[in-house]
Automatic annotation (TrEMBL):
InterPro entries: KH_dom-like_a/b, KH_sf_prok-type, KhpA. This is RNA-binding protein KhpA. Belongs to the KhpA RNA-binding protein family. It comes from Lactiplantibacillus pentosus (Lactobacillus pentosus). A probable RNA chaperone. Forms a complex with KhpB which binds to cellular RNA and controls its expression. Plays a role in peptidoglycan (PG) homeostasis and cell length regulation. Keywords: Cell shape, Cell wall biogenesis/degradation, Chaperone, Cytoplasm, RNA-binding. It is found in: Cytoplasm. GO terms for cellular component: cytoplasm.
Length: 85
């Protein structure tokens, strides 16, 4: 299977000012191979882009990777801020 985590990091690194803050977490569910991308809060605009065009392009690249089995790849992009529960 292709290393999708490395692909995400390779695509996102040139876009951000704080490449050390890039984190990609993986979780497998019954239907998806979920990748959660977290970047510094100051870089979130660069990763999402105007009207979400950059995020859409990143997702297109990641979703084009062939994975074995019936599961699909899903990419979620979050900023580095903590959520209040």
């Amino acid at each position: 299977m292709a290393d999708i985590k490395a692909l995400i990091i390779t695509v996102v690194t040139p876009l951000v000012q704080y490449p050390d803050d890039i984190q990609v977490n993986f979780k497998e569910t019954t239907r998806y191979l979920e990748y959660n991308l977290t970047v510094n809060a100051e870089d979130i605009g660069r990763v999402i882009g105007r009207q979400g065009r950059v995020a859409s392009a990143i997702r297109t690249i990641v979703y084009s990777v062939r994975v074995s089995g019936p599961k699909r790849v899903r990419l979620t992009i979050e900023d580095g801020q903590q959520k209040n529960s």
